[in-house]
Amino acid sequence: MDLAYTPKQQAFRAEVRAWLADNLPREPLASYDTREGFEQHREWESRLFDARLSMVMWPAELGGRGCDLTEWLIFEEEYYGAGAPMRVNQNGQLLLGPTLMEFGTEEQKKRFLPRMAASADMWAQGWSEPNAGSDMAAITSKAIRDGDHYVLNGQKTWSTRAIFADWLFGLFRSDPGSSRHHGLSFLLVPLDAPGVTIRPIKALNGKDAFAEVFFDDVRVPVDNRIGAEGQGWHVAMATAGFERGLLLRSPARFQYTARKLVELYRANQASADRDPSIREAVCEAWMAAEAYALSAYHTVGRLARGARIGAESSTNKIFWSELDLRMHETAMRILGARGELLAGAPESGDDHGWLEGFLFAQAGPIYAGTNEIQRNIIAERMLGLPK
């Protein structure tokens, strides 16, 4: 694997670094799990779009820049290295976007992707239901065909930032006599449609990070279906692969956290070294983050040669989610009782972000498919073990 960058890639890195240096917000944005912060992040996304840096790997005619995946990794390294704001439209841009590229019609791509890249439309994901969490094949929300519309009834839950979003994508059972992964359709639903009710679900930090969405005779045009009727499972599995693979959680995100963890350790080394295992955990975190980045470059090289990511995306998901958890647990051990202080507490200083990250990291082994399910996938599909 040749890790030398071409002159074109080096020029792209320099351009991204210079733009971020000139345009980063002077003050941190509010949490995007609040209305104020959500709109601040939407505005930031619009600025990225105007600079053709929102979705760099998308085709130019669809709101992107036409970069390859290596240049995307470069962009991510510079973006996280600069401490830029978290990306608020990830569900749309990193999950639905690639799905539309693969399964959408030309009209659907032109209709949705440029607005998604500009964050003019913000997206929520509609997978989980009260009785269908990690087991998506147990979905019961219905989409019954009525002429050129579907009529939706049912409930989705744990939809990230759905309280603020404009659209939702998800699976609905379009064949009422079907079961499991058969008879499902992948639909795009405007959240301001008559019959949609959204109720916020507060996260551990008290913010409206999630929502449950109710559908009561909601009419959605058939043109909003991605892929063929009844083939939603196939489409959704591709989306899940994007979620578990490279796109949702780039290596740069964890390299940035690992560097911050090293800085935290050095600033508190006298107390941290009372427990030698902390130093070891910090070193292991840094090495694991770098190893994940090298693995990502290797995967990108394989994709460039025509390979596809299949069940191995489950190994990625387990690795990054458990790495994130270990890094934040190590940070909390370094900080001790001080790590439990909320933002605004007199003694919290600049370290309160570790608590926010620690709370969020608890969800990592659950969202994008629980790690227990991912281990089953690895056992069955990669290792050939019996069910």
From TrEMBL:
GO terms for molecular function: flavin adenine dinucleotide binding; oxidoreductase activity, acting on the CH-CH group of donors. The keyword Manganese does not apply. Residues 6-118 form the Acyl-CoA dehydrogenase/oxidase N-terminal domain. Keywords: FAD, Flavoprotein, Oxidoreductase. Residues 124-218 form the Acyl-CoA oxidase/dehydrogenase middle domain. Its cofactor is FAD. GO terms for cellular component: plasma membrane. It comes from the Bacteria. Residues 230-383 form the Acyl-CoA dehydrogenase/oxidase C-terminal domain. Belongs to the acyl-CoA dehydrogenase family. This is Acyl-CoA dehydrogenase. It comes from Geopseudomonas sagittaria.
